[in-house]
Amino acid sequence: MKIKGFIGKMINIPMNKRKIKYMVSNKRIKVQGPKIVVIGGGTGLSTMLRGLKVYTSNITAIVTVADDGGGSGELREELGILPPGDIRNCILALSDTEPIMEELLQYRFKDGKLKNQSFGNLFLAAMNGISDNFEEAIEKVSSVLAVTGRVLPVTLEDIVLKAELSNGTIAYGESNIPNVVIKNKSKIKKVSIEPKDAKPLKEAVDAILDADAIILGPGSLYTSIIPNLLVKDINKAISESESMKIYVSNIMTQKGETEDYSVYEHISAINSHCGDNFIDYAIVNIGDICEDLKNKYALENSKIVFNDQDKIKQIGIEIIKDNFIKVKNGYIRHDTDKLSKRIIETIMENKLIYDKEKIVEYYYLSEIIKNNKRNKV
User: Fold this and answer.
1) Confidence bin at 14 (pLDDT 50/70/90)
2) DSSP string for residues in 25-51
3) Which residues pair with 164 in a beta bridge?
4) What is this structure's pTM?
5) Is there a contact between 48 and 226 (Cβ–Cβ < 8 Å)?
6) Average pLDDT of 92-114?
7) Would you call 101 helix, strand, or coil by DSSP?
8) pLDDT tens-digit readout, 321-366
9) Mean pLDDT of 39-49
10) 95 three-state secondary structure
């Protein structure tokens, strides 16, 4: 391809015309994509977001702020800010940055007073210092990193997570709850937040009411997903929204939180806290892992979440199943590409195609799926 430079000379620049055409058209299509709200926190949420941004620019991630452990907990205690860790991961998942920038923001200091602290957390903390509030800080960081969609804290209030165990023991603090569960050998009966009347971010409620699809999970059931639903008016907004409600089940059970839980028990825990069975679809894994991985996870009292689909169907939830397992650095994760594709296909087939105002989006998404098969860029 030849481009005439400002000095009047012709300079040759090697370019893949097909690739450029794909990138430009894909970006235009994504602007017309479905409005998706994802609710949760942790590694699972950010993994899913990386896949969803391929199909739509209209993503809102509503993230828990109950974390009080690790580097986030330290900054929360020392600076009085909301925990930045989960928010940082979601911002990076939705960002359009060079690999070196992502590596920098995920870098953890190895020595000194900053040992184990993430540079990305410090970046958010510094931005908070020159902003009116934490929401504005997130917006500024998102702008710098060219984020697709929005990342919102579920509330700007300093909330504390509390758990009541089956034996009556009360545990305080998101990072402490699993330890108390293990020590008491008693399961979680119920979780709550303090203050109980913590107000949600208005933008979070508006996004839920305006969504085509709301996705819960994947992520820690009692410490990442349910805490968001306990914030005032969030559960109400989900129930009132005309969107599809999708629950993405974890692949593995979690020590000190969901040991021996089936998919049905995960869903039942959500329903018991929210008082409303609003989930329409459950995305579940049916893949298996090798014996070595089973033995590795068994050391942490963790195993594949059992898919008791008959029970799930009895409460009116449709099941979307596949082998979603991907092993990365010896750890089991959701296959980002496969999970996001199945989510988008579910939205297309059960929401967009039946809505005259959304039919154009249906064909736009069909084009992206076709392009992704033809062009791996």
Assistant:
1) very low
2) HHHHHHHTS--EEEEE-HHHHHHHHHH
3) 170, 190
4) 0.89
5) no
6) 90
7) helix
8) 999 999 999 999 999 999 999 999 999 888 777 776 677 777 777 8
9) 92
10) coil
Question: At 92, which amino acid appears?
Answer: L
- Give pLDDT tens digits for 307-322: 999 999 999 999 999 9
Q: How far is CA 350 from the centre of its chain?
A: 22
Distance CA(108)–CA(51), nearest Å, equals: 25
d(CA 233, CA 214): 15
How does pLDDT run across 194-230, given as a tens digit for each residue? 999 999 999 999 999 999 999 999 999 999 999 999 9
Q: What angle do CA 236, 38, 377 make, to 5 degrees?
A: 160
Q: CA dihedral defined by 8, 14, 18, 21, rounded to 10 degrees?
A: -40
Separation between Cα atoms, residue 143 and residue 302, nearest integer Å: 39
| Mean pLDDT in residue range 156-162 | 96
φ, ψ (nearest 5 deg) of residue 326: -140, 130
Q: Is 38:50 a contact under the CB 8 Å cutoff?
A: no
Q: How many angstroms separate the CA atoms of 52 and 214, rounded?
A: 13
Looking at 256-335, list the stretches that DSSP marks H as alpha helix, in order from N- to C-terminal side: 263-274, 291-298, 309-314
Secondary structure letter of residue 213 according to DSSP: E
Instruction: Show the beta-strand stretches assigned E in 18-121.
Output: 36-40, 59-63
Cα 119 to its chain centre, rounded Å, is 21
Question: Which two tokens mark 2?
Answer: 């030849």
- φ, ψ of residue 309 to 5 degrees: the values are -65, -30
Structure-token pair, residue 168: 């009556």
Q: Which residue has the tokens 């399961």?
A: 187
| Contact between 74 and 244 (Cβ < 8 Å) | no
